[in-house]
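Field reference: sequence -> structure
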Amino acid sequence: MTTNDPYADHAHMANHWWWRPGWQVGTRFYAWHLTLDGQDEVHALADRYAESLRNVPTLDPIPSRWRHMTLQGLGQVEDVDDHTRDSVIEAVSKRLRDMEPIRSTFSRAAVFREAIALPPNNPPSYAELRREIRAGLADVLGVAPEAEAGFRAHVSLAYSNNDGDGLAIRQILDSTGVVPATATFTTVSLIRMHRDNRMYEWETVAEVQLTST
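Structure field:
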């Protein structure tokens, strides 16, 4: 599908669980995420969509504890020593010190090529947050990992596990009665994650507060 809209629906879905270069069972990775701890309205919205999609075999619904918004990778754990990790945490904390919490509304789910996702109503706010995190990484590493372009703020609801009919899934989503959800994000988390079980699972390494008032 050719479009300038990063949230445009895809007519055909593909398997998300192919192994990216450098990834395998046992890989552990540091990344900055927004978790959904305490975001009850967003979980209720996600649960409503999950119920509608429960009979779609090509989708793996994401359990509530593993729902998140990916912001920025740091690197594989084996490549980031503890001193560098801790220096990054300190640098990112300084960069985010003057940022305000982000309040968003979520409603219409989008059909991505490899996932069903909830876009926020204010993607530029998350792009700005990511730029500040990247600046913190660059303060320590000299340059931030990953490309700045191509970021697409979203909370994933389900991952595609095979080829799928995006148009049929779009119809299911459109027939789902939902109530828009609001969320306020006050904390950014550095997590240590893996995907050994065909799901992104993690432990939290550090939390940085958005504290500007």
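Note: The first strand starts at residue 12 and ends at 13.
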